[in-house]
Amino acid sequence: MVAAAGGMKVRDLIRKPPVTVPPTATLLEAAEALTSHGVGAVVVVDPSSPDKPIGILSERDIVKAISAKMPLSTPVEAFMSTDLVTVEAEEPLSRAADLMWMYNIRHLVVVERGKFVGVISVRDLLEPNRRRQLC
Questions:
Q1: Most buried residue, 4, 30, 79, 121, by CB count within 10 Å?
Q2: What is the pLDDT of residues 30-53, one digit of tens each?
Q3: Which PROSITE patterns match (predicted)?
Q4: Is residue 34 part of a domain?
């Protein structure tokens, strides 16, 4: 799993296909997707361009919506983050860690030449064997 030269790359952390929802999905549908797939964020994509994410909705965003007393029927586009922070798949793990720290986020959208290929989380980086790769 370690890349040939230079240690692990961001692409090495992508373990499963990303969970996506359309912007019209409800907060409840997004919460159900998070639960059923065991992830902390869903990527929001326009069904006509699924390789170009338009937002991300995390557990934190759903908590903010609930605390604002928004109905669970509210579309995710009302609470998704649209200022996506992305990382190239070939970047070293340290770059992903730096971006998460800099922007105070827990999930990064991974792209390859501008095309959406996955998501990694801070938890992926903190796995004990991977932490050594960050040093």
A1: 30
A2: 999 999 999 999 999 999 988 889
A3: CBS
A4: yes
- Number of structural domains found in the chain: 1
| Cα 101 from chain centre | 14
Comparing 93 with 6, the larger pLDDT belongs to: 93
With respect to residue 5, please indicate whether it lies within any of the assigned structural domains.
no
Distance CA 48, CA 74 (A): 22
For residue 19, being part of any structural domain is answered with yes
Look-up of token digits 């605390």: 67
Say what the pLDDT of residue 98 is. Answer: 95
Determine, yes or no, domain membership for 4. Answer: no
CATH code for the domain in which residue 93 is found: 3.10.580.10
Rounded-to-integer distance, Cα 47 and Cα 85, Å: 21
Give me the pLDDT at residue 2, please: 40
pLDDT tens, position by position, 59-103: 999 999 999 999 999 999 999 999 999 999 999 999 999 999 999
CA distance 50 to 15: 19
Separation between Cα atoms, residue 135 and residue 5, nearest integer Å:
15
